[in-house]
Amino acid sequence: MPQKKTTTSKKRTASSSTKKKTSAGSAAKSKTKKSTARKTAPEQVNYKSSYEKHRKSKRQMSAVLLFTAGVLLFALMVVPGMNVWRWIHDFLFGMGGATVLIIPVSLVYIAVMTTLDKLTGEIHNKVWQTLALTVFLCGLIEVVQSSPFYGDSIVQILLGLYTDGTMLSGGGLLSALIGWPLYLACGQVGAVIILLLALFAFLMLLTGATLIGLFRSMAKPVKKMEESYVARREEQELLEEEERNGPRFNVDVSLDNMPQHPVSAPKPTLQELLELEKKTAKEAKSAKDPAKEPQIILETQKEPQNTAFSIDPNIKKEAEVLVEQALASAEESPQDKADASGKEDDQTRLYTDENNQLSRYVYPPVGLLKAPQGGQNRDVSNEQAVNGQLLVDTLKSFGVQTKIVHISRGPTVTRYELQPSSGVKISKITGLADDIALNLAASGVRIEAPIPGKPAVGIEVPNRQVDIVTMRELIDTSEFESAKSKLSVGLGRDIAGNCVIADIAKMPHMLIAGSTGSGKSVCINSIIISLLYKASPSEVRFLMIDPKVVELGIYNGIPHLLVPVVTDPRKAAGALGWAVTEMLKRYNQFAENNVRDLKSFNALAKDREDLSPMPQIVIIIDELSDLMMAAPKEVEDAICRLAQMARAAGMHLIIATQRPSVDVVTGLIKANVPSRIAFAVSSQIDSRTILDSGGAEKLLGRGDMLYAPVGMPKPLRVQGCYVSDKEVEQVVNFIKNKESAEYDNQIMEEIEKQAVAEKTSSDGASGGGFSDQDELFDDAVECVVEAGQASTSYLQRKLKVGYARAARLVDEMEEQGIIGPFEGSKPRTVLISRQQWIEMRMNHDKQTKTE
Asked: Dihedral through CA 644, CA 646, CA 649, CA 654, nearest 10?
């Protein structure tokens, strides 16, 4: 028992000591925790700052990598290299077309924004958003094509998408991810709407913009417009209030410094009187319109007879005279007689003639020309879709795989741009022109293969409803008004509906040819009317030659003409001879003053009083074939000399003919007249004579032309503008009424003199046939009359001369009507007998003695 108690007490003491140790240990642990907590507080701050530094350095490193990747991708896309570089270049564009250029630009943008610490969100999210934006944009570009996802199988469709991407004309393979399913599920319109909304959302996410910020930025210009409108309204109200409460005649005068004796008012100066005249004239003009007459309140007092401010009666009389003159000038103001169109005042300009006398050339108002008819912007999408599908099906039936990439509608024809599959020859498409016209039920089609600057073939199909291009819609355009050259003319509209404005100074000469009724005369009228709207007589003068008499005679009397319209073919040759003489005179003046062209000379003439500026001269020949029949040698020589040298002298040729054959449009004329306009012709031979290429035989007539200015690789198809005879008459009558023509008598005398000289030389050559003859001419005639036949070899043997001289003798005898024309290998027939030859010699001897 006592042992048990002892052991029990020992256990209790051991447990108590253990408890004391445990409590002591727990106290020590708590003290350790408190000290640790005190130590970890600054350590956590240091950890956060180091984390931020690490994160920023990591973002900066990512920005550098993104910038490098963006620049490298951009270089791969822009620079076509070789081998592997070239393969990657084609692969990138094949995947997404031109849209993949967004990826390097976006990567550079993300890198720059990250560097500036302005990027909202994580970098990898922005990269994924960029890729998604690219995929949606590729799908949109492919869906809006005229025939998207074209092909018979999935493989063909994917290959077509890849090929289109490499040619930068489609969305590439990436467009098949989103665009193709949307196109199949929702159609073209629905797919476009969905893709546009998706693009908008991803663009907002990528840039970090918000809807509120977008609406605010859209509201800023509206708010600015509203504020400016309010400011203008307040300013206008202040001006109206000032006019209503204007200065009155009861002026408050201080009486502090009143003079003791009467003093007369000072006499007004000449400047004050002129200002009074202007003010009175304005008031008189405004008084004509009672609706606009301002309400004037006059508060006058009786004028005392002897005051310090009485007006001198002489000054009052002068003022009354000035007021009467101002009223008379206001009543006779030319602005009161302005045209109803309202544009005459804006178009009234002055020019100074050669005598430095101020004369007024009033430009004709646009209201004289007929306005374009309404309803020309009709909906033709259905017609274009049907014809486009017919074209593709027709070519497919002949084994030619194509797809439509673009459609351009002009006033007369519509061009369907087709892209053939790889391996298709262009000649195979051009050879199917008649088959295409048959399937489309068209009068004819013209194929342009390839289109300059495009990897496509253009098939031009006539429109079922033709739009008329009026002269007014060309004159009243910004392109014509902003043209700096005074020789700018409006020709018409091209196949895309754009205005075609030509500059004669750059051509510098032009040949217009086509069959009868194709539109040559209307084209010439449009050129002349354009120049009348563009230049004054001091800037441009005309020399018109019209062997047909009835075409250009309406322009007689306008101040731009140097001489009346020349209608006699002999005088026409004289007129061209005067033009050559004038060209040489101008070149001599240029040489004396050390200038190279007319522009430099006119600039020099402005600074020197001893020189007068020269106008540009446009020489218009309406029918070349008649001139070539009357005086072929003289006309051809003059045209060639002018075409070769007249450009720098400011002289330009416009030649028209309805017979584009090689005997009219000779090789020399074609070589020196570089710019051409071809209207509809009957054969490809005539087209080649005009343009050196075919195509004009496919034109439709009625102003449909091929315009080939100098420097253009292929002719441009243009629908010429239409100006009626009534419009021409109205414009010409307006100009004649404003200013009459003053013809140059010296030019007329020079033309008459040259015409007489040419007629004399021509008559001498063909009248008797004995002037400027070969010495052996009589012997040659004796030989052929005795032999009864003539040939060059026969004369060589008989007269013992060379081939060239014998051939000239044969030609002279043919001109005199002694022998017949050339008949191939047969000898020429002798047309006169020996007795007739003796009579011809006797008549010539008598005529010689009489002279």
From this structure: -140
Which tops the pLDDT comparison, 417 or 163? 417
Whether residue 158 contacts residue 134, with contact meaning beta carbons closer than 8 Å, is answered with: no
Q: Is residue 16 part of a domain?
A: no
Give the H/E segment covering residue 543. Answer: strand 540-545
Note the pLDDT of residue 772: 59
- 517 assigned to some structural domain: yes
Tokens of 727: 């419009």
Is residue 618 domain-shared with residue 702, that is, in the same domain? yes
pTM: 0.53
**Can you say which residues are annotated as belonging to the binding site?**
514-521
Per the listing, tokens 């002018």 go with 642
Question: How many domains does the structure of the chain reveal?
Answer: 4
User: Do 556 and 645 share a structural domain?
Assistant: yes
Q: What is the dihedral of CA 117, 122, 125, 129, to 10 degrees?
A: -20
Decide if 646 is inside a domain.
Answer: yes
Query: For the packed helices 154-166 and 175-207, what is the interaxial angle rounded to 10 degrees?
Result: 50
Amino acid at position 636, single letter:
E
Domain that holds residue 424: 381-462
Predicted confidence at residue 140, as pLDDT, reads 85
CA distances from 680 to 498, 660, 674, 700 (A): 21, 11, 19, 6
Among 357-366, 517-526, 709-718, whose mean pLDDT is lowest? 357-366
Whether residue 25 has pLDDT greater than 90: no
Concatenating the DSSP letter of every residue in 358-389 gives EEEEEPPPGGGSPPPPS--S---HHHHHHHHH
Q: What is the pLDDT of residue 609?
A: 85
- Does residue 522 sit in the same domain as residue 604? yes
Within 8 A by CB and 6+ apart from 20, the residues are none
- Residues 586, 642, single domain; the answer is yes
What pairs with residue 789 in β-bridges? 829
Distance CA 56, CA 293 (A): 76
Domain boundary among 416, 442, 462: 462
Instruction: Please tell me the predicted confidence (pLDDT) of residue 695.
Output: 87
For residue 476, the domain's CATH number is: 3.40.50.300
Beta-carbon contacts of 596 under 8 Å, excluding residues fewer than 6 positions away, are 590, 648
Give the separation between CA 767 and CA 359, rounded to whole angstroms.
51
Q: What is the CATH number of the domain that holds 841?
A: 1.10.10.10
Residue with structure tokens 């017919």? 390
CA 440 and chain centroid, separation: 32
Check if the beta carbon of residue 620 is closer than 8 Å to that of residue 542: yes
Q: Which amino acid is at 337?
A: K
Q: Rounded CA gap, 319 and 317, in Å?
A: 5
Q: Which of 218, 233, 221, 313 is nearest to 265 (CA)?
A: 313
For the chain, what is the largest distance between any 2 Cα atoms, rounded to a whole number of angstroms? 197
Q: What is the DSSP letter of 43?
A: H
On the CB side of 135, how many CA atoms lie within 13 Å of its CA?
Answer: 15
Q: List the binding residues for ATP.
A: 514-521
CB 70 within 8 A of CB 108: yes
Examine the domain organization and report whether 487 and 506 are in the same domain.
Answer: yes
- Name which of 520, 327, 446 is nearest 700 in CA terms: 446
Is there a single domain that holds both residue 452 and residue 558?
no
Domain boundary, last residue among 152, 186, 209: 209
Structure tokens at 839: 């009579």
Burial 679-704 (b: 16+ CB within 10 A, else e): bbbeeeebbbbbbeeebbbbbbebbb
97 and 137 share one domain:
yes
CB crowding 200-235: b at 16 or more within 10 Å, else e: eebeebbeeeeeeeeeeeeeeeeeeeeeeeeeeeee
Domain assignment present for residue 15? The answer is no
Q: Which pLDDT score, from 0 to 100, does residue 726 have?
A: 92
Helices in 448-565 by DSSP H: which ranges? 472-475, 478-481, 520-534
How far apart CA 156 and CA 698 sit, in angstroms, is 36
Q: Quick one: 846 and 712 in the same domain? A: no
Helix/strand/coil for 540: strand
Q: At 837, is the secondary structure helix, strand, or coil? A: helix
